[in-house]
Amino acid sequence: MNIGFYIIVFQHTDAIGVNTGWQQYEFFVFLGTTWLINSMVQTFFMPNAQEFSELIRTGNLDFALVKPIDTQFLISFQKMEWAALSNFVLGCVLLIVSLGHLTTRTEQPWHLEPIMFVLYPFYLVCGTAILYSVMIALAATSIWLGRNQSLYNFWFYITNFSRYPMEIYQHSWGWILWGVFTFIIPVLVVVNVPARLLAQPLQPRQNWEWWLAGFALLATLMSLYVSRRIFRRALLSYRSASS
Predict the structure, then answer these.
(1) Could you tell me the pTM of the whole model?
(2) Which end of the chain is more exposed for a tag (fewer CB within 10 A), N or C?
(3) What is the mean pLDDT of residues 211-218?
(4) Quick count: other Cβ atoms within 10 Å of Cβ 240?
């Protein structure tokens, strides 16, 4: 459905934004990257985060706390939703098709840099880690708030911002959104950094793109650290079901 919508969009415009470089197949690389990261989050973390509040309500969190393994690790990897990997396969197919068009086009054909074989999967993992950090931090608030379905809805709302190139926010009041979701809740770097490295929407590559890649690494470490602190602080407030 998404790919059909964007095919129609690109029948009426050459690129998303003026002088952004996000033409049709560059953007399809962006879209494929979005599917890859979201599928990893939905496979490994989403079902466990959704079940966390139920563990608290039923008292089963007590059993996790007494096991000789880190509680956050145990909660995060209890089960996996393998069906969600179908989007991963679709994302790979879209990437292969899009890169095929970029490398064979007559004007400014795309050339694969060997370092991309390292940087692209690395920043896929970084993007997944940032989304996981946001998710586990919101899940931890279940200890204070009980059932927090509205907070899960909030997670979907804010992660929607990561699904589009950050250039679309760099106008008028959109700068506020760009600042908040780049530096405070850094979801804008989740897809933008790996997709930009691979699709190369601006040629030659701009210096600020490397600064953005460096910031994405820092944002990943800070997101993991902050979410860890929130999770541990929430556990200190937990009252056992047997108490």
Answers:
(1) 0.90
(2) N
(3) 92
(4) 10
